[in-house]
Amino acid sequence: MRCRRLIIFLLLLVTASTVYSSSRVSGYTILTLRVVDMSDNPLKNAYVTIVSPPPGSIVLADGYTDSNGVIGFELESPPEELYVFVSWKKVIVYQSRISSYIGSETIKCKVGDIRIKVITESLQPINGAEATLTWNTTIGPQYVSNTTDKDGIMIFDRMPLIKYKIDIKLKGRLVYSNLLKAVYNQLYTILLKLYNLKIMVLDADDRSVPNTRVIIEGNAFRITKWTDENGVIELNYMPPGNYRIHASFDKYMKKLNVTLDRDETIKIRFDDLRSYKLDIYVYDSLNNPISYAKIGMYNPASNVRELKYTDKNGVARFKLYPGKYFVRVEYGNIIKQSEINVNSDTKIEIRMNLQGRPPEQVGGEGEFSIPFHLLLPIVIVAILTAIVILAFHYIIVRSRR
Q1: pLDDT at residue number 22
Q2: Considering the domain boundaries, does residue 285 fall inside one?
Q3: DSSP symbol at 364
Q4: pLDDT above 90 (res 121)
Q5: Sign of the CA dihedral 294, 298, 304, 305?
Q6: Residue 382, phi then psi, degrees to nearest 5
Q7: In this structure, what CATH number is given to the domain that contains residue 203?
Q8: How many domains would you assign to the chain?
Q9: DSSP 8-class letter at 204
Q10: Are residues 154 and 165 in the same domain?
């Protein structure tokens, strides 16, 4: 009996010794680490370094975690105390001392999502704002970018919880720059002081001037825009500050300075620029007016393009600025081109050979006619509709018999 108890005691002693030595076999220790972020999600490809304690610290082992955030080390005769360093995105997010006899350990690193919301002074979310986070590492600055959604929110996934420089751009313009200290599970709200700038370009008669080239520069950015068909440019989400505006149309130019501290509407007037009337009459070879002829005007110097159709009297009326224009007239597959110089109110006549088209296709004086190439689809649709109606009528009559 005593012999049996002695044998059992020795077996328990050997087992306990094996567990206490943390799988030490022939002087080796197996150490398993599981690396997670602040939300206990595993960190894949985190760089882990095992260092001996000072003095005379040396790297004993290093490597990257697997897809489960786990890494194992086989250490030969390690000291009882070890230093563990974890690097994520080139930044040390964990450093501490552990016992080499611990066997396995879960390491929680200072890594988490950074949530940012961008709004205006009126608390309206800004969609499409691009933010860039920049941070310093031993190999130089690193950066990552993201864009706000319709709610003005962007999320930078699993970032080191450190201090960043944040820059925000809207449509390529820098509107915000500051430092941000990342804290776990916190929403950062950034309120931007932004204003709307509307620029209207007018001639000497207070008529709008389309296709005017406008350069706006200031606050470390420069942008070039062209006025729309109403002579207007609208710029939203402009940061406050001083701006220089340079407008040019053909040989006409205007400059002014603007201080933007609220929503502004600015009028730029070219005092020497006047427009002239140009009436174009389109006839066939028999002097009948041609209605619905397509007329395009183009001035290469000012990049002005206009498109109109002749009315029932074969007339298209334009309001143009001085210069040379290319005129293109189309009616069906017939095209006629010419050049004109506009420097006063002008009327011109353009005659087109309709190549044997019947007179009823051409608008007579004082009446409106539909061109044949537009009339044909209408006639086809009418015929098909009549056939369908007759078919239904035939089916109904047959069903009653």
Answers
A1: 41
A2: yes
A3: P
A4: no
A5: positive
A6: -65, -40
A7: 2.60.40.1120
A8: 4
A9: T
A10: yes
As a whole number of Å, the CA-based R_g of the chain is: 40
DSSP, collapsed to helix, strand or coil, labels residue 236 as: strand
Cα first-last separation, the chain: 115
**Same domain membership, residue 233 and residue 246:** yes
Peptide bond before residue 55 is cis, with ω within 30 degrees of 0? yes
User: Which range marks the domain in which residue 201 is found?
Assistant: 195-269
Q: Quick one: which of 210, 207, 236, 209 has its CA closest to 223? A: 236
Please answer whether residues 182 and 114 qualify as being in contact, where contact means their C-beta atoms are separated by less than 8 angstroms.
yes
Q: Express each pLDDT in 263-312 by its tens digit.
A: 899 999 999 888 888 999 999 988 899 999 999 988 887 777 888 999 99
Show the DSSP H helices in 261-344 as ranges: none
Tokens of 286: 């028999």
At 263, list the tokens: 């929503």
Q: Looking at 108, 139, 172, which one is the last position of a domain?
A: 108
Tell me: do 218 and 292 sit in the same domain. no
Q: Name the token pair of 150.
A: 């319709």
Cis bond before residue 289 (omega within 30° of 0): no
- Which band of pLDDT confidence, cut at 50, 70 and 90, is reported for residue 400? low
User: How far is residue 75's CA from residue 29's CA, in Å, rounded to a whole number?
Assistant: 5
Residue-wise pLDDT tens digits, 344-387: 888 999 998 886 554 444 443 334 445 555 566 777 888 888 88
